[in-house]
Amino acid sequence: MIEKTCTKCSTSKPVDQFQYIATRWPDRKFRTEQAKYNAWCKKCTSIVTRKSPSSRFNRYASNISVKGGAKITGAQLRALGLPEDADCYLCGEAVGTSKPELDHVVPRSLGGENTVENLRWTHKTCNRMKHDMSVAEMLDRMSLILAHHGRSVV
User: Fold this and answer.
1) What is the CATH number of domain 79-148?
2) pTM for this structure?
3) Where are the domains of the chain?
């Protein structure tokens, strides 16, 4: 069996404990069989690439800062909790990991501020339906759509 030394933990292991990367570049010529595998073993790679919840909050915060202009920190977003634990404020179902997004309750186009108090977790589809309307405007629009199709809200 071919062995390779992990550059992170400096231990020699069989190549099956390293991630196979040759499929990314099928036309590339590798000098050795060991070169077809990552430099770090799978164990070291999983430790380094594991994302902590705080880094996820910082990523969401940076996205909001870029879009909205105002600075919101990851620490401030922790007040909203993780999206996996939250319910969508529009439909009431668990957000989970199904493309969670942060939505402005009062849209910025209608004078809403870019603050943590104005942000809530929502599904991507619910957020896209609401777009730049207030919740009341969205509900009015939905009732018109239902009435048009001969249905009503019970």
Assistant:
1) 1.10.30.50
2) 0.58
3) 3-49, 79-148
